[in-house]
Amino acid sequence: MPDLLRASELTVRFGGLTAVDAVDLRVGEGEVVALIGPNGAGKTTCFDALTGFVRPGAGRVELDGRDVTALPPFERTRLGMARTFQTERPFEDLSVLRNVLVPAFLRHPRRAEAEALARSALERVGLADRADQPASDLNLARRRRLELAKALALEPRILFLDEVMAGLNPPALAEMIAFLRTLSDEGMAIVLVEHILEAVMQLADHVVVLASGAVIAEGRPDAVTSDPAVIEAYLGTE
Amino acid sequence: MTRIWIIFAGLAVAGLVYPFAMPGMLSVAVTVLLFAGWATAWDIAGGWCGQVSLGHAAFVGLGAYVVALGQVELGIAPWFTLPAAAALAAALAWCWGRLTFSLAGPYFTLSTIAVAEILRMVAINEDWLTGGAIGVFISTLPEPFGIDLFSREAQYWMALAFALGTIALVAILSERRFGYRMRAVREDENSAMAAGIDPTATKLHAFMLSGALTAVGGGIYGIFLSYLEPHVMFYLFLSVQIALTAIIGGRGTVFGPAAGAVLLVGAGEVFRTAFAQANLLIYGILILIVVLFFPRGLVAELTRRIARRRYARSAQSE
Predict the structure, then answer these.
(1) CB distance A89–B193 less than 8 Å?
(2) pTM for this one?
(3) Do A166 and A137 belong together in one domain?
(4) Where would I find the beta strands (DSSP E) of B16-153?
């Protein structure tokens, strides 16, 4: 099966610091790939480079065989990439429904169709009853779900989730994992940046471990977590 | 949405009845209507899209000069020059936006002051075209169907059509895709991009529309004054007044800018007659009160409170 997303030799430098160092990444249709690594490993920067929010200094990103390295973020969104932000950014002054209408208009210029899509996205994440509430009133777990609804309203082919599970309590976490599982079963490709290993173990088909911007290990979740190099990166050497 | 159109219909009826109820107060009404239209047009860029301009007098002046010079120098009637003025203003907004939308918020605002000033300098110095500092005097106007465009009645209807047309356009846009794109860009450009929105294109389109509409009002203003001079038309204070009217009334609301025009222009007029020398002081105090107690502007603050109360009630009844 051809890769939906392929990054090769992706490199991002900030001044003298190499935040992302020649990272290769492949994501197939319906596959869940997790990017993990200690703090400061370059996960979010890698994410930003994949989605176009940061210009890589070298390397390329291909979506469905098309080179998108030079495309701005909104063009990549139109081609089927959707992302959430680590610090979720709802349009605070707008109602929950209007927050989701913004992305829903991307593929549905007509108001009625966009609204139907927005409502069904809210339904999916369990926020339908809060459609008229201002987004600024939502608590953290609901904000996360709103971010997810916004991304889903883009009808993407590949979803980039930046720590959507951080800070969730155990029931909310279990719900989120189950929901992402459903999405993936429906054929959505997902790239996760995640600190919560429990979630990664349950969701990911493939895990990529970053340390100091470079890939130090990758493979199936159980194989990767027992890799001595990974344990060393997380815990340090004795 | 239907509520907006009910209010709109109420305003339209009030506008239609007014000249028969208060035939002696048409000049004030024309000024209120022009400011209502300008502030609503300003708000497309400044409120809905978050691009605060302090140079909208540039569009007013451009519209007024195009209409006046078209008539005086070329003998072209206003109904041909008004669309031309709108097109020219959109072109100016495009060039201006291309150059400045890479600047962050306050720097864009500063650049807008410069553009209006540049146009003022052009109007003063290029006297072969603009009559220079002396200005342009509109002495004749065509009389379509025997209507005298110099009459206050005719000017009232033009200003009313301008104000209502601008408000109606904003009411329509606010619930369409473009309205949501503007809101998204105003709130957070990165989130907007993540939603597939091109922020620069959105800002440009908002600014072009805002400028074009303002220029139409400017053309009517030129006919209303029938005498144009650069210091009036491209006046920084006019730009500030337009922005202030929208901000006081409520940025990013359909009726806020128009409400601001009624309050500021209406109150300004009343204060001038009632308090003579002290009128600017009272005017300043009025603005302070609004800013202190209605920081989002009158209409925005009211609709917000109503929405919150309604939500709280529906949450309680569950």
Answers:
(1) no
(2) 0.90
(3) no
(4) 136-137
